[in-house]
Amino acid sequence: MSDKPKGKLAFYWAASCGGCDISLLAIDEKILDVAEAFDIVLWPCATDGKVRDVEKMADGEIDVCLFNGGIRTSEQEYMAQLLRRKSKVLVAFGSCACEGCIPGLANMNTRQEVFDTVYKEGSATMPENPQDVRPQPATKMPEGTLHLPIFYDTLKTLDQTVEVDYYLPGCPPEADNIWNAIVAILESKLPPKGSVIGLNTTVCEECPRTRGEKKIKKFYRTWEIIPDEETCLLEQGLLCCGIATRAGCGALCPEVNSPCIGCHGANDGVADFGARLMSALASVIDSDDPDEIRRIIEEGIPDPVGNFYRFSLAASQLRRKKKSQNA
Amino acid sequence: MADKIGIYVCHCGSNIAGTIDVEEVARWAGKNIEGVVVSRDYKFMCSSLGQQMIEDDIRKEGLTGVVVGACSPHLHEKTFRNACKRAGLNPFLCQMTNLREHVSWVNSDKAAGTKKAKALIFASAERVKRQKPLEPMEVEVNPATLVVGGGIAGLQATLELADAGYPVYLVEREPSIGGHMAQFDKTFPTLDCSACILTPKMSEVGQHENVTLLTYSELEEVSGSVGNFKVKIRKKARYIDYDKCTGCGICTEKCPRKVIDDVFEAGMGYRKAIYSPFPQAVPRIPVIDTENCTWFTRGKCQVCSKVCPTDAVDYDQKDETVELNVGNIIMATGWKLFDCKRVPQYGFGRLANVYTSMEFERLCNAAGPTSGKIVMRDGKTEPKSVAIVHCVGSRDVTSNPYCSGVCCMAALKFGHLVLEKTKAEVYSFYIDMRTPMKEYEEFYQRLLGEGMHFIRGKVAEVTDAARRPEEHGKLIVQAEDTLLGKQRRIPVDMVILMGGLEPQADAKELGIKCGLSCSMAGWYTERHPKLDPVATMTDGVFVAGVCQGPKDIPASVAQGAAAAARVAGMIAKGIVTIEPIVASIDEENCSGCRICNDLCPFNAIEYDEEKKVSRVITALCKGCGTCVAACPAGVITGAHFNNEQIFAEIDGILWDAREEATV
């Protein structure tokens, strides 16, 4: 054990599925090294830290905060601001914090529509709700007023809310990359602020499949074909996002004959993952006939937002579906 | 280093100043754009005084970037880049803002125009701050030239270059060079024999030490760029050993298989299955038409092989692909005749004695199927009356809206030949008589004097349905005579349809191979319709003759010579400078996905199998940006058009929106 005083680490979750918290444990026994190097001051998933304890800390007292999840509610926004203030280094941990991820797809709907899906009587989660009770930010009760966080209309990424120092991509981040990031932090060998910690090339680099020149006549959904195991999946007509997705996962999905879905987000310098990917695919569709091209796209890619912006809608230049003027 | 930007707003007389408050734009830019140290307006920035002003400021103020708000960069980008260069500033640190074509000429509201001008100037200033100095590259020019098409334009270009001492490869699709001019009888307005003036040029080309003739060959593929093109030519199998054949013609004479000649004789005459299209063909080497040859279709005969004194017939010959390196390409691919069957009311193909203009050329040609006797389809009866119908497939919205340019004169020539060779009455049905070139109008006057009848009106119908006794057994041409203001029905024995000129069926496809675009009608697009008529948007590729648009023989010859002069200039100079605006791939981060490999229209991207990365061949890259946009990893950068520059430009345009957003 070193004589160095222990650092302080916080690990927080906002609008996320919890997978990132589990992924931290995927570094296996190395978690003990983490515990040795840091006092974990807040990790709601695993330890009993309190927000009020954090509030009492001096600004910048936490050395590193790994923050996963996007910002959907006023509480999450408050915690992001609080942890930003209290932390020297704030890392957007995982796809949700980096670019919104699956929760960000709700930006295709309004709050009203999200609530309808969840609380309307007869919906999957609410078989009975005759009074159409909806969550309210403030509810007066005889004992006093009860408060619930405000549910925002649009999910924001962490860096759309507070300044972020580093990004660790992935849904969830891979154990190796998490460990490398921790080592970099421990050894103070961090890249320039604002960087993504990881590689700056795409999944094809790590993919062992044979690639040729690409000409696509038809896109297939994954259940429609059993792809050849040696050839590039995209060349076989599967919408593999590996061409546009940051490497670092070791091409996990293509390795098991499944197309990359893009969870590591875009490379440096790419402003909009979906637009990039669309632009690349548009370039290799093998037809000059506008009608045929339309058919290839409409039949093969029935859910363009889900395909191209599955992880990055909230961070994209589109951010959300335009709200209707009357809403 | 801090930015020191100079802004120069041009009045362009009143062209810009009329709808933009240029003084206000200059004043505003000087005050509001960060890094601007000089901001001026001037009557004519492109004048030598205007240029001097920029040069002085660069020297005195040490400007790091120059923005000129004036006209289109197409016109004066070079001017201002050179001014910067003279003052020691890298020319690529000069940015033009198009205030004339993009603002003042498309707008009459001065307040709105001024606002837009400010936004565009802001954008250019933001962009120029992020521009990098670039150095042009130099490439040596291969002195060999490829000429595609052996018609008169291609022949002229070939001879000009070959006579200047430069090697030329002339590719011709048909078995002989000569093109359409070889089919004509006489040429207007001088009435000299077409073959007599053409064939000397043909044989000169055939024998020229600097010319490599590739007849019966097609252009398959073009790669590379100006100075260093690589072309693939497919030599179609002639089934004749080129080296052994002496062109004696015994094979053709003895060949038992007679076929209608749809190409050279326009269906008016016959040729053999082994043939040379016409007696003066260059080269004299025949070809075997395998679709009709008895040996190829039925496995019997071989007469040609038996009679050949030099044993030159080779039934096993295969198509052969040759690769050539050339510095420049001249496209002179010519035209095809409008298919007159597309105007069914004129009866061609249905009424025997309706002829196309090309059929009539062969009919009155002394070397043609009737030895120049003008007779009807029965082969013996001389027509007593002939109608010539103008504008068939020209000046007609249902086919081609353009004027084919040459048909009026050809019609007058036909009229003259009919009057000279027969006793027939000749009627010309025209919309407008177009005779604008040297001595053309005089030729028209001559025909008026020779007794040709002119009826101004578009023909409605050619029919054999007689209404009056004198119409029986005749072809009746019905038209409104717009000078008399009444309908006329003229019964005649023979009708000649003056078919229009159309682009070759595969012109577009061929154009794509060497980077040429086509007009709506399908003619190759020149670089500038007035000031650069033989160059194209692809450096090193030139156009000549009718493939660029309908024209007559003198104009085709002039263009052939002009294209050759342009090429000769390039060869004489020996090097071309290539704009440094090219793409580059960050090999470190390229994942080798190969999305870009098949996209480059200039074949400038190669894939390194060993390192598994793609690479741009800088000398071939034209900086079009296709690969930059397609690269899913964002590791291809277009110099002078990188993301930072473009986003800065967009941000600049939106400067006022940005302020509103922060409020």
Architecture blueprint of SSEs:
The complex is a heterodimer of chains A (327) and B (663).
Chain A: E1 7-13, H1 19-25, H2 30-37, E2 38-42, H3 51-56, E3 62-68, E4 71-73, H4 74-86, E5 87-93, H5 95-99, H6 101-104, H7 111-119, E6 138-141, E7 144-147, E8 151-156, E9 166-168, H8 175-186, H9 252-255, H10 273-284, H11 290-300, H12 304-308
Parallel strand pairs in A: 1-2, 1-3, 3-5, 5-9
Antiparallel strand pairs in A: 4-8, 6-7
Chain B: E1 5-10, H1 22-32, E2 36-42, H2 48-61, E3 65-70, H3 73-86, E4 94-98, H4 110-130, E5 137-140, E6 145-148, H5 152-163, E7 168-171, E8 186-187, E9 192-193, H6 194-207, E10 211-214, E11 217-225, E12 228-235, H7 250-254, E13 258-261, E14 269-272, E15 274-275, E16 287-288, H8 294-298, H9 303-307, E17 320-326, E18 328-331, E19 335-337, E20 354-356, H10 357-363, E21 385-392, H11 407-421, E22 425-430, H12 440-450, E23 453-456, E24 459-463, E25 475-481, E26 486-492, E27 494-499, E28 501-503, H13 507-513, E29 541-543, H14 553-573, E30 575-578, E31 583-585, E32 605-608, E33 613-616, H15 626-630, E34 636-638, H16 643-653, H17 655-662
Parallel strand pairs in B: 1-2, 1-3, 3-4, 6-7, 6-18, 7-10, 18-29, 20-27, 21-22, 21-27, 22-23
Antiparallel strand pairs in B: 5-30, 8-9, 11-12, 12-17, 13-14, 15-16, 19-28, 24-25, 25-26, 31-34, 32-33
Helix pairs in contact in B: 1-4, 2-3, 4-16, 5-6, 5-14, 11-12
